[in-house]
Write a structure and sequence with these properties.
Blueprint lengths: L1 E6 L5 E5 L4 H10 L7 E4 L5 H12 L3 E6 L2 E5 L7 E2 L2 H4 L6 H10 L1 E5 L12 H9 L2 E6 L3 E6 L9 E3 L5 H11 L5 E5 L5 H12 L3 E3 L5 E5 L8 E3 L4 H13 L3 E5 L7 H10 L2 E4 L3 E5 L10 E2 L11 H8 L4 E6 L10 H6 L3 E5 L2 E6 L8 E2 L3 H13 L3 E5 L2 H4 L5 H7 L3 E7 L5 E3 L1
Helix pairs in contact: 1-2, 1-4, 1-7, 4-6, 5-6, 6-7, 8-10, 8-12, 10-12
Bound molecules: uridine-diphosphate-2(N-acetylglucosaminyl) butyric acid.
């Protein structure tokens, strides 16, 4: 087993390069299924979620080759089945994008239902409602597999779909299926995240006709074929937000490269409110938290362009170090506070009341053994550990490695004292 050992208390200084966006990659890789030729995808993050979705495509017959660390060549022309029901599929939330891609390409799909998640129930009713509106029948088989299928003659037929909740996954999944349906599909109350625009750009580059991505009405006119392309994925705004939180938590000053500053607006606005100086360039920012004492703030997570829920745990960890009372309102997920009990082990004064977390910041913190309860919770543990002068051990780091490329190397380059240690079940350290 592996853990991170972090000795904090030192400000971060230096430069970090942000990788491609995880949540764009896990949709764009299955989207290649829709294409009638091979594609090359650049700026792919080298993370375990990408390895997993690539293996799933391989199991289905696609040829997937890593040309270099950040480039994947995917040839979908040998896919022999519209079925994906292995344990690998079950182990990955984003495998639900296989439903939209396979349905769009083959008119049917059989996909294992993704397992539960560490922050509660994650329904996909809006995805299924969209597929049904396009003319597919949906069935849950044995509580474990979702089957969707449209009439062979009729195919999928474009329609109006109003999403009852703003859902990133449902918006993208319906875009995938509709991009090869007959006629026009209109998605209303669509999500507007940067990765939605990225998926639309990718589909359009292959010959699809998707308009309005980035607004709450997306129009998709189906096409009958798609051609191969080389496409580069957008930078990961949540990875960038995580390094911002860590730099602020240690009162450091870092340059963050390979980003789109516009995608970070809601996060940057909060940091400016706290007193951080942010200087923006075309594809980089200088983030300086050394100038003034940081001020307490409140945050409320919202769908884009609001403050992203995927930065909430890291921001909460930062707020532990800021004197005064800050209030976090988690407005996207019902139950994304499991990690707070880990922060409390470090001495945090945080209480949770429904959707609110109330943080009494600036109290003394001490190092403690903590767990990464999910991906962003794990990132929050790193931010917290960097604040504390002692040595913190973080276990269950496989969650962190699902979504952060070279996290140890990147933090080390910023001057952090962090290492990955291998240990056996009886906690004996084997090698660093
Ligand atoms: N929802 C429904 N029905 C649905 C779909 C969603 O009620 O059919 C609800 C959810 O329960 C939630 C809200 O709508 O309360 C938003 O969920 P959404 O569908 O937008 O989430 P998702 O697509 O499953 C993606 C990211 C998450 C991120 C959310 C919100 C991927 C693979 N995952 O999930 O990322 O938190 O959007 O931005 O893109 C992460 O990266 O750590 C992560 C969890």
């Amino acid at each position: 087993m592996e853990k991170f050992v972090v000795t904090g208390g030192k400000p971060l200084f230096g430069e970090v390069n942000i990788s491609g966006a995880k949540n764009a990659a896990v949709a764009i890789i299955p989207a290649v299924i829709l294409c009638d030729e091979p594609c090359t995808i650049e700026n792919i993050p080298n993370i375990s979620d990408v390895t997993l979705i690539s293996r799933i495509l391989q199991q289905m017959g696609a040829k997937v080759r890593r040309i270099n660390k950040s480039t994947l060549y995917i040839d979908p022309t040998h896919i022999s089945s519209s079925s994906a029901t292995t344990d690998l599929v079950r182990g990955m939330r984003a495998s639900y994008y296989l439903l939209g891609a396979l349905l769009g390409k083959y008119g049917k799909a059989k996909v294992a239902l993704p397992g539960g998640c560490n922050f509660g129930v994650r329904p996909i009713d809006q995805h299924l409602k969209g597929f049904e509106a396009l003319g597919a029948e949906t069935r849950l088989v044995d509580g474990a597999i979702i089957e969707v299928e449209c009439d062979e003659e009729e195919g999928l037929v474009g329609t109006h779909i109003y999403l009852d909740v703003v859902s990133v996954g449902a918006t993208m999944n319906i875009m995938l299926a509709a991009s090869r349906a007959k006629g026009l599909t209109v998605i209303e109350n669509a999500a507007k995240e940067p990765h939605i625009v990225d998926l639309a750009n990718f589909l359009n580059s292959m010959g699809a006709d998707v308009r309005g991505a980035g607004t709450d009405v997306i129009k998709i006119r189906g096409v009958s074929c798609m051609h191969g392309v080389t496409y580069s994925i957008i930078p990961d705004q949540i990875e960038a937000g995580t390094y911002m939180c860590a730099a602020a938590a240690t009162r450091g000053c870092i340059t963050i490269n390979n980003i789109t500053p516009k995608h970070l607006e809601s996060i940057s606005a909060k940091f400016r409110e706290m007193g951080v100086k942010i200087t923006e360039y075309d594809e980089a920012i200088i983030f300086d938290a050394t100038k003034k004492p940081l001020k307490r703030v409140n945050i409320k997570t919202m769908p884009h362009p609001g403050f992203p829920t995927d930065c909430q745990p890291q921001f909460t960890a930062l707020l532990m170090s800021v004197p005064g009372t800050s209030i976090v309102n988690e407005n996207v997920w019902d139950n994304r506070y499991q990690y707070i009990s880990e922060l409390i082990r470090m001495g945090a004064h945080i209480s949770v009341e429904g959707r609110l977390a109330i943080i009494e910041g600036g109290t003394p913190l001490t190092a403690a053994p903590v767990r990464a309860t999910d991906l962003r919770a794990g990132a929050a543990m790193i931010v917290a550990a960097l604040e504390i002068k002692g040595t913190t051990e973080i276990t269950d780091i496989q969650y962190i490695e699902r979504g952060y490329e070279d996290v140890v190397e990147k933090f080390k380059a910023l001057g952090a004292d962090i290492k990955k240690v291998y240990f056996n079940e009886s906690s004996e350290e084997l090698r660093a």
